[in-house]
């Protein structure tokens, strides 16, 4: 805490893999963004390989084309929904109740979440815009509150 902001100055909220480096883009911020982008894309590729092996397992089991199609469509829809939910979570706080009800769907569509993380990390730290807006609003509120109460009222001159 700095002396100019006072003891109750707002602090930036850390972001996973970035800490608070997103605030000033320092301490390896660019390298972290590159690492997150490469890591999430590599994980998504590995996940697609695992899903391909599962698809081949369904073909080998000869359970029928309807079930195979159903599984493929389910993973595609869940991935699309997970992508959209994750992408929206970078710009606004998700509703905790909705998040809990979608947990299973997001788990099935994990490839979509990984891809959303990859695409967002190409432009900024995932969630940076949301955190920056909240931090700036908290700072403005803090400055407004501290300037309103600045000065010691007992030291003010009395006009007589």
Written overview of the protein:
The chain contains six helices and no strands. It is mainly alpha-helical and 160 residues long. Helix 1 runs antiparallel to helix 5 (110-121) and helix 2 (65-89) runs parallel beside helix 5 (110-121). The protein is elongated. The model has no long low-confidence stretch (mean pLDDT 85).
List the helices and strands and how they pair.
Blueprint: H1 29-61, H2 65-89, H3 96-101, H4 103-108, H5 110-121, H6 128-148
Quick synopsis:
With 160 residues, the protein is mostly helical.
**Average predicted confidence as pLDDT:** 85
User: How would a textbook summarize the main sheet?
Assistant: none
Radius of gyration equals: 24 Å
Q: How many helices?
A: 6
Shape, please? Answer: elongated
Task: Tell me how many strands there are.
Answer: 0
* Poorly predicted segments: none
Structural class: mainly alpha
From the N-terminal CA to the C-terminal CA, the straight-line distance is 41 Å
| Run of helices and strands | HHHHHH
Indicate the proportion of strand residues: under 5%
Helix content: 55-70%
What are the main properties of this structure?
160 residues; mainly alpha; 6 helices; elongated
